[in-house]
Amino acid sequence: MPEQFANADQREHSATLGMWVFLATEVLFFGGLFLAYTVYRWTYSHEFADASRDLNIGYGFVNTWVLLTSSFTMAMAVRAAQLGRRTSTVGFLLATLCLGAFFMTVKGFEYHDDFVKGLVPGAGSRFQGTDAGPRKLFLCLYYFMTGLHALHMAIGIGLLVWMTRKANARLFSVEYHTPIRLVGLYWHFVDLVWIFLFPLLYLIDRHPGGT
Amino acid sequence: MIKTRKSAPSLASHVAVYGALLLLLLLTTALAYLNLGWMSLVIALTIAITKTVLVVCFFMEVRNDQPLTRVFTLTGVFWLLILISLALTDYGSRNWLSLPGSWPGRLPGPATRIIPASRDTGG
User: Fold this and answer.
1) pLDDT value of position B106
2) What is the DSSP letter of B1?
3) Residue B88, class by beta-carbon neighbours within 10 Å (0-12 exposed, 13-18 middle, 19+ buried)?
4) Chain A, nearest residue to B84 by Cα
């Protein structure tokens, strides 16, 4: 026990608060992109609706399902750690890890499809000419937002590998499993970002013959 | 005074939250295919916020955490609201006066729409 803490509870509470402070800065980090998205969608609502229909909703839907499931397995891993069940902690951490990797794989195939279809803002773009600006803006935001999210996923997967190894090496107990809780908070936060990205990028205006 | 160690959340609670999240995912996807005008956005965001509240309260265990954690969580949301609301008051009022720097201002071509015109399309 480091000497600045009165007891184990205070240690865990301090760590939890620190993690929430970090997550609040992350909210603002992504918030800037969501703000840019809001301003442009407000200004170019028709073009954004058209651009949204170009995206393949299948990838988005499957990935949302996968991430929600990974959040569930992560919560189960934390619960198992709280109950001191090492085997199921490791199992749920591995499940979360695999779901995260699956998400990244699907995202990779989706990016590939987008590139092949010319859904890119720069050279090789399907959209040319003076009218194309808003469509390209949407694609810029799409790549920046999903890209930054994917970067967070990659970091999360790395953290999960680390946690799985530590849990497997019996370094956690009912009394001390704070690192798993904090990685769990981070993982759920990354899931939350996607919960907003999915409707905002893929679901703007899907109905047939939409405006 | 810091509380003593809390108990782990129940399995039933985690499973119920997961089920609710999946139902909300199906709901938001299905509703996107209906022509609801501007209500589509309101509904999509309401569902996203509902999912967020479920994840934050149950999976992130803010519901059972110390009160200070809740304050920190809400502070993060509050800062985001400041960021978005103040920026939008700026963009929303820029073309009230026909001055340089009005929004969207610099982007030529038929795709350009000023903000009041785009409102008419919703419903």
Assistant:
1) 42
2) -
3) middle
4) A35
DSSP of chain A, one letter per residue? Answer: --TT-SSHHHHHHHHHHHHHHHHHHHHHHHHHHHHHHHHHHHHTHHHHHHHHHHS-HHHHHHHHHHHHHHHHHHHHHHHHHHTT-HHHHHHHHHHHHHHHHHHHHHHHHHHHHHHHTT--SSTT-S--SGGGHHHHHHHHHHHHHHHHHHHHHHHHHHHHHHHHHHHHTT---SS--HHHHHHHHHHHHHHHHHHHHIIIII-SS-STT--
Q: Which of B28, B29, B55 comes nearest A191 by C-beta?
A: B55
The backbone region for B25, taken as left when phi is positive above 0, alpha when psi lies in -120 to 50, beta otherwise, is alpha
Window 62-121 of A, Cβ < 8 Å to B = 64-65, 68-69, 71-72, 74-76, 78-79, 82-83
Query: How many whole angstroms separate alpha carbon A29 and alpha carbon A6?
Result: 34
What does each C-alpha distance from A165 to A33, A91, A143, A173, B119 come to in angstroms? 34, 11, 33, 14, 54
Mean pLDDT by 10 residues, chain A (211 residues): 85 93 96 95 88 93 98 97 95 98 97 93 82 89 97 98 96 93 97 97 79 48
Cβ–Cβ gap B66/A74 under 8 Å: no
CA A20 from chain centre, in angstroms, equals 16
- pTM for the whole structure: 0.89
Whole-number Å distance between alpha carbons of A74 and B59: 8
Which amino acid, one-letter code, is at A12?
A: E
* Residue B69: band (very low, low, confident or very high) from pLDDT cuts 50, 70, 90: very high
The HSE-up count of residue B116 (CA atoms within 13 Å, CB side) is 5
Q: What is the CB neighbour count within 10 angstroms for residue A153?
A: 23
Taking CA–CA distances from A45, the nearest residue in chain B reads: B118
DSSP H helices in chain B: 11-32, 39-54, 67-93, 115-120
Kindly give, in sequence order, each residue whose CB lies less than 8 Å from that of residue B74, ignoring residues fewer than 6 positions away: none
